[in-house]
Amino acid sequence: MQEFFAFFTTVVAVSISGVMAPGPLFASTISSGARQKLAGFKIAIGHTIVELPLVILIGLGVLSLEIFPQFRLIITVLGAASIFGFAAIQVRSALVGVTKQDIKYGPLLTGIFLTGLNPFFLVWWFSIGIKLISDAMILWSFWGILIMFAVHIWMDYAWLTFVSASSSKATKFLSGRSYKIFMICINAILVYFGVAFVLDILPAL
After folding, report:
1. What is the pLDDT of residues 27-69, one digit of tens each?
2. Is the dihedral of CA 116, 86, 22, 104 positive or negative?
3. Is 9 inside any structural domain?
4. Which are the contacts of 23, defined by CB distance < 8 A and separation ≥ 6?
5. Which of 33, 24, 43, 38 has the alpha carbon at shortest distance from 107?
């Protein structure tokens, strides 16, 4: 039991840097939360759909940076494109209105795309995260991967749900014009991350 608590503390301490770091998923949660109180929870589900298979494949040795040398370039380009597209859709929805279909499916797909196409997220797991996976497998073999993931993922759900709920509460006090300005500013931050992705790979081109 003492071994588990020591591991739990390590995973939480290391993971919090990735979970709470400002990034496209955080900004998109604020943006989506402005329209849906539980958007963060749905985004976390989408995040899990990508993250769990990735962690398992890394643990089993199926995935590594050496297997696909150009992966960061490709993921960065696709990630930047998805961010620009998402920001454009969000701003348009704020200006001309949003449909029920957008509300129903938006957050889940946002969680999937802005996780799977985020190069910094992938690099985190292939560098910092791989140590957590290795330590977990030394302690509990394959089951260690699932134990480590469970200890890690609850923070994503707690944080993203809190962020979207806070955003939803804050926007209730905004007028129509202020709401539009708020959405434009938040999505401008998203565009900034997209541009940062592209600038990060320019030296390698």
Report:
1. 899 988 888 889 999 999 999 999 999 999 988 887 665 556 5
2. negative
3. no
4. 118, 120, 121, 193
5. 43
